């Protein structure tokens, strides 16, 4: 069954073929056929809006408004026409009407925030000139052509990855190398900051609290975004640094709670994962600001001294960076909560996997695992 001109226009609009939409709807007897169609005038108006023909768009939207006055998409389209002209008062009235019918309308909320923070005539002109104003146009949905391109790209990528992965595996299996497998990351979309949180990221009242870092809204959002992206890239340590920064700052309580939730999804780092994902942290960075790195798991090499076991735990000092007997970067107390069955040899280099702690204001390493090479014969 063939599609009507309006159905074809909808499809062309989603494909961003705006001039084709206008040609199709204005050709032949279509205007007469659809003279009472709200959908016809709205579709034609949106095509004109995205083409930059705001005069024709306004005329189409006025015709649509005579048929239906409370449609959020139409109100959004008319609001942005006022916003483009710098008439922010009229635009706000329309956006408030939208929110009456659709309180969670993202375009209206974003536009109101833009007007609140950048609502001067000069800033609006910049947004129009740069094309940023299109953020507030009624959304058209996902472009089917984009979906097709992405699907083809993903398919090609999967085929290439399959070939590379299997070629690499065959080669590594032949050499007897163990192949680490990454676990899929948790979906943290529910922890994204809301529009209100992004606009009011700081606590409004700082009395009664102690804050190590006083951050701006932008800095808080940047740290939160960095915590999220580092988690998705399997870099738990770098994510935790940003979480610690937020927790010790003037960030709003709701943002701190979401930051804590991110850390609840962490996996336990290992020697292999720290190396694989470039997630290790150097001693110098930690020594400069230990509080920022509390809870991070590091892999530090050196030698041990002053070892002591009491039947319940094993303690010693780790001479960080001294594995080649050249230079000591720092001395860090190291403890294992359970007594080690085999004591560490202070005459040989050692690599420690440990969690950073701060006790009585001083840096401490909670040991998790140890690698120490076997003593060579003749030594």
Structure explained in plain terms:
This protein is of the alpha+beta class. It is 50% helix and 12% strand. It has helices at 5-14, 18-26, 30-33, 38-51, 54-67, 72-84, 88-101, 106-118, 121-130, 144-174, 195-199, 217-232, 236-247, 253-263, 271-276, 283-288; strands at residues 297-309, 314-320, 330-336, 350-359, 362-371. Strands 1-2-3-5-4 form a 5-stranded mixed β-barrel. β4 (350-359) and β5 (362-371) form a beta hairpin. α6 (72-84) runs antiparallel to α7 (88-101) and α13 runs antiparallel to α14 (253-263). It is elongated.
Beta percentage is 5-15%
What percentage of residues falls in helices of 4 or more residues? 40-55%
Order of helices and strands: HHHHHHHHHHHHHHHHEEEEE
Helical run tally: 16
Over all CA atoms, what is the radius of gyration? 30 Å
What is the molecular shape? elongated
Helix-strand layout with pairing:
Blueprint: H1 5-14, H2 18-26, H3 30-33, H4 38-51, H5 54-67, H6 72-84, H7 88-101, H8 106-118, H9 121-130, H10 144-174, H11 195-199, H12 217-232, H13 236-247, H14 253-263, H15 271-276, H16 283-288, E1 297-309, E2 314-320, E3 330-336, E4 350-359, E5 362-371
Parallel strand pairs: 3-5
Antiparallel strand pairs: 1-2, 1-4, 2-3, 4-5
What's the short story on this structure?
This protein has 16 helices and 5 strands. With 379 residues, it is an alpha+beta fold.
List keywords for this structure.
5-stranded mixed β-barrel; 379 residues; alpha+beta; 5 strands
């Amino acid at each position: 069954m063939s599609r009507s001109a309006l159905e074809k226009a909808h499809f062309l609009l989603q494909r961003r073929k705006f001039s084709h939409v206008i040609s199709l709807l204005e050709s032949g007897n279509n205007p007469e056929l659809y003279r009472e169609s709200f959908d016809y005038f709205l579709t034609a108006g949106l095509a004109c809006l995205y083409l930059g023909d705001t005069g024709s768009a306004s005329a189409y939207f006025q015709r649509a408004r005579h048929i239906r006055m409370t449609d959020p998409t139409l109100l959004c389209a008319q609001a942005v026409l006022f916003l483009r002209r710098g008439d922010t008062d009229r635009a706000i009235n329309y956006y408030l009407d939208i929110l009456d019918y659709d309180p969670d309308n993202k375009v209206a909320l974003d536009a109101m925030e833009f007007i609140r923070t950048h609502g001067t005539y000069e800033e609006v002109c910049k947004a129009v000139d740069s094309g940023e104003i299109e953020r507030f146009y009624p959304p058209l949905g996902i472009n089917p052509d984009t979906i097709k391109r992405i699907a083809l790209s993903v398919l090609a990528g999967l085929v290439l990855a399959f070939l590379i992965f299997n070629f690499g595996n065959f080669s590594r299996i032949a050499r007897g190398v163990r192949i680490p497998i990454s676990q899929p990351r948790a979906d943290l979309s529910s922890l994204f900051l809301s529009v209100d949180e992004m606009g009011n990221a700081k606590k409004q009242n700082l009395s009664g609290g102690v804050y190590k870092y006083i951050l701006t809204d932008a800095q808080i959002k940047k740290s939160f975004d960095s915590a999220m992206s580092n988690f998705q890239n399997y870099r738990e340590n770098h994510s935790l640094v940003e979480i610690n920064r937020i927790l010790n700052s003037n960030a709003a309580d709701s943002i701190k709670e979401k930051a804590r939730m991110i850390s609840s999804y962490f996996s336990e780092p290992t020697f292999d994962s720290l190396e694989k994902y470039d997630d290790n942290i150097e001693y110098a960075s930690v020594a400069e600001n230990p509080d920022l790195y509390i809870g991070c798991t590091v892999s530090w090499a050196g030698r041990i001294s002053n070892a002591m076991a009491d039947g319940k735990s094993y303690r010693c000092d780790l001479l960080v960076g001294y594995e080649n007997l050249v230079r000591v970067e720092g001395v860090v107390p190291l403890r294992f909560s359970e007594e080690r069955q085999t004591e560490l040899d202070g005459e040989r280099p050692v690599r420690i996997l440990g969690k950073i702690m701060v006790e009585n204001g001083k840096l401490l390493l909670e040991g998790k695992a140890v690698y120490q090479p076997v003593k060579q014969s003749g030594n």
